[in-house]
Amino acid sequence: MSKLVIRGGKPLCGTVSVQGSKNAVLPILAASILCTKGVTVIHNCPDLDDVTITVKILRFLGARVKRDGHTITVDARSKIKHRIPKRLMQKLRSSIIFMGAITARNHRAKISAPGGCKLGARPIDLHKDALRALACDITEKRGYIYVNGKNRRSSEITLRFPSVGATENILLTSCMTGGVTVLHNAACEPEIVDLANFLNAMGASITGAGTPDITVTGVPELHGTVYTVMPDRIVAITYLCCAAVTGGNIYLSNTVPDHLETALSYLAQCGCLVEAEDSRIHLSAPKRLTALAEIETSPYPGFPTDAQSLFLALLSTAKGTSIICERIFESRFKTADELSRMGADIKIKKDIATIYGKERLSGAQVSACDLRGGAAMVIAALAAEGTTEIDNVCYIDRGYEALEKNLQALGASVKRI
Length: 417
Ligand code: EPZ
What we know:
14 helices; alpha+beta; elongated; 4-stranded mixed β-sheet; 31% helix; binds ligand EPZ
């Protein structure tokens, strides 16, 4: 089991290029099995454990997959299996997106509940209800979900909550279903737009992605394409927080500033100078950040729940008292306990964290509780006095490519042991 060892206190300076988006590439890879004419060539795929598992699922299903650096080529022209074994399903949350993709391709699917970071209850009722609304028959037996989509048809669906995954499953299931499917209260996250753009590049007809109302007109088949995955917006926020907490001065390249609007405005309110131009962001931080009165996580374009742990760490050393309300996932404050080991003063009451900023944190032995919680510990460690050892690094590796190499290039003292 590897650990990250970080000696804190150095301001991060320099340029970092942001990797391709994990949460965009995973549904895009699942969607690639819908292509029966030609192959799909997907550029800017980050080198992450979750991508490796998704490639394993594609190969299990019978697709021929070639991975060459950051480019993945999927040839799904021959027969694709309709089932995924539990051992693969349970390795990540986004395996649930194969439910829609396999149903669209094979008119039936056999999958189990997905895995993923433990952020509290992560039900899949919205995914199942959505497929039922498309006239798919769903039964469950011995831990497996059986989808019969032989009689599926287009429909008008209103999601009770704008779930990212359920929206993706609806796009996948409906894009080759005859007629017009209209989805209301859809998730508006940029990753939804990226999936819709990819499907449209393969010949699908999807309009309105990025708004709460999406219209999908079914087409008989999809063809090959060449596509470049969007930059990862949470990784971008992570590097900005690393610089902000250390009084640093960094430039991000390969990013989409519009995707980060809420987080950028909070970083500016903390006292950072933030400048965005085209695909670049410049952040210059003061010696000590100022607290934020109140942040609340909400679906896009609100403040992302995935950046909540990052700001928990960031605000631990800000001057004054900050409040963060977590409205999306019920157990996403576990990282507060780990930050406390480093001297942070955070009180949690239900879904509200009150952060009393301390001038300095001190190095300690801590754990990554989940992917973003792990990144939060890195942010805290970079700001702390002394050395911090972070274990459970496998969580961080699910979402960050070459993290220590990038941080070292920015002047941080980080090594993996
Ligand atoms: C996606 O998860 C992301 N994962 C998450 O990223 C992200 O935190 C989340 O969206 C919210 O932005 C991927 O894209 C692979 P949801 P997803 O369905 O699709 C409830 C990261 O760190 N819900 O929008 O699982 C659910 O419990 C991660 O990269 C239901 O009640 O998120 C939660 O409270 C972790 N029933 C809320 O909706 C359902 O059937 C949002 O979930 C589905 C969801």
